[in-house]
Amino acid sequence: MRVRSIDEAAHRKLLRVARREEPADMWIRGAKVLHVYTKEWREVHIAVSGERIAYVGEKEPVTCEGTTIVEADGKCAVPGYIEPHAHPFQWYNPFTMADFALARGTTTLISDSLMLMTLPFAQVADIMEKLAEHPVKQFFWARLDPQMRRTMASPPFDREGIDRMLEHPRVIQGGELTDWQGVLAEDETLLYGIKRALDVGKRMEGHHPGASVQTLNAAAALGITACHESITAEDVLERLRVGMYATLRHSSIRPDLPTLVQGLLEAGIPWSSRMMLTSDGSTPPMYRHGLMDYTIRVAIEAGMPPVEAYVMASLNPAVYYGIDSEVGGIAPGRLADILLLTQPGEPTPEAVIANGQLSGKDGKLLVPTVQPVWTDYDFPSVSREMKEMQVKTEWFRMKDKGVPVPVICMLNAVITKMEQASLPVDTQGYVSLENDPELALLCLINPVQKRLTRAVVRGYGRDLKGLASTYTASSDWLVIGRCAQSMAQALQRVMEMDGGVAMYEKGKAVLECPLPLGGKFSPAPMEEVIDMAERFTGLIREKGHDHLDPLYSLLFFTATHLPYVRITAEGIVEVKSGKILVPSEFL
Ligand SMILES: Nc1ncnc2[nH]cnc12
């Protein structure tokens, strides 16, 4: 597989520049270069021809007037970073994520496609192909399951849909496979998809939080070769032992890297060529610190030797995905993705060279990138779906039925369990949350099936009046709060914005975060999205939300790959058994 195509003339010129028969297009001189293959720093010359490195070594290249000479005396040169597990849809999108990545030295992204799957395949393919023109090399995964409750395989997660995705040249692997219960039930489509990924020569990534050694064995037996869910050094070791790559994660919901690094150091477990680093689709506020440059920084600060961290963010993922002949190292034949650092332990690059072009300096992008025409894509329109309905305050009250009320308790930002509580009833016969400011009503609306699921939630914040969000894993809408009127107003506002997140209090909007692309992401540049998400997080924190990431809570209340209960269009579901504990109602 080719990461970036090369024509015959450019290919021949590589030979000539390498042999010093023709001038180089770029000469990087004076830098201490990290050879990721041998883990040595050496002061050598780098000669670039077109998009690729032609030569790395002692000899000065032939130059001409057109040769760009990069004086890199005293600098360190490392390969462009690879993010092996991105979810480029957490309010940002794959284009804005790629721009942001490039400016900070992440020159290859391996990305989730889940949030594209509401589009017809031709449009998914069009987006992936457009991104192939971006200086950041972006490949995608083909999901085998939608990470939400369903009763049978349906497009695009049926055999035909899986085949179409897996065969696309911009799709590099199957996964991440979140429906492990489905695998255990020997779901034919899932088993087909795993085998098919391997049949077409691609990797299959798992998702195994808390998995036993037996489960890891079974997953490896099926062909799963990586997992990013280790939270202890022992987890890492268990994955390595069954032949999997262990991806060490530092994300906004699982900032585990310091624990993992210290645990590995204490246990004397050697750094392995089968370890990779990931920021795993962190929500925008975490990216304020950077992308893979920040992940590497966290690893180094926790005690990982810098060289090991660079190798885990370049060569190791390149080898894993079978693209190391073109990315992941500073060596002849590779794309000239080269970062200039001020010192070995400072991973945020001063300058970014991508595909042989100076593309970023001090965090600023220097080259034009690829801009999508979003109107070319038919993301579901939130306001269109709501057209025939009128938001009713009544939806956001819970009638007392004389039985205990289901309370979804947040154990952390994304893990929930259910309790039953006897709550007071007001004079009009509605369940009252008056006595406990920690409680709020959590309502899910499915506008297509016209279903409403209600629960009480504990832990999203204190005295929250009304918040509505179309940013959810299942594409249902969530409304959370203690004031029915504010909840209705927040939902109404979100409809007017054509998707996003809004908060209302005392008849006023206190926050508006428009996410007009499918109600889930914004076309705005990453910096603006970070500002917007920080405003949201700040406000929710003021309301006493003390879990790690309130955005991920919104996303995952509906995602059935997480324990123990989830809110779905059919009702409140116990994940493990699939049982509906409390059914939904018709709107
Ligand atoms: N499984 C998942 N789906 C969507 N976004 C994610 N971010 C981290 N894990 C994710």
Notes on the structure:
The protein is α/β, with parallel strands linked by helices and 587 residues long. It folds into three domains: 1-77 and 329-363, Urease, subunit C, domain 1 (Roll), CATH 2.30.40; 81-328, TIM Barrel (Alpha-Beta Barrel), CATH 3.20.20.140; 382-586, no CATH class. The chain has 17 helices and 31 strands. Strands 20, 21, 22, 23, 24, 25, 26, 27 and 31 form a nine-stranded mixed sheet that branches. A hairpin with a 5-residue loop joins strand 29 (571-574) and strand 30 (580-583). 55% of the residues are buried. Bound molecules: adenine. InterPro entries: Adenine_deam_C, Amidohydro-rel, Metal-dep_hydrolase_composite, Metal_Hydrolase. Keywords: Hydrolase. Residues 414-577 form the Adenine deaminase C-terminal domain. It is an enzyme of class 3 (hydrolase). It catalyses: adenine + H2O + H(+) = hypoxanthine + NH4(+).
How would you summarize this macromolecular structure in one to three sentences?
By secondary structure, this protein is of the alpha/beta class. It has 17 helices and 31 strands.
Structural class: alpha/beta
Distance between the termini: 50 Å
Whole-number mean pLDDT? 96
Radius of gyration from the CA trace? 25 Å
Biggest beta sheet attributes:
9 strands, mixed
- Give the C-level CATH assignment of the largest domain: Alpha Beta
Q: Give start-end ranges of low-pLDDT stretches.
A: none
**CATH fold name of the largest domain, please?**
TIM Barrel
Number of domains: 3
Percentage of residues assigned to helices: 25-40%
DSSP strand (E) fraction?
15-25%
Q: Any idea what the CATH superfamily of the largest domain is called?
A: Metal-dependent hydrolases
Domain Adenine deaminase C-terminal: 414-577
Family: Belongs to the metallo-dependent hydrolases superfamily. Adenine deaminase family.
Domain Amidohydrolase-related: 78-357
Catalytic activity: adenine + H2O + H(+) = hypoxanthine + NH4(+)
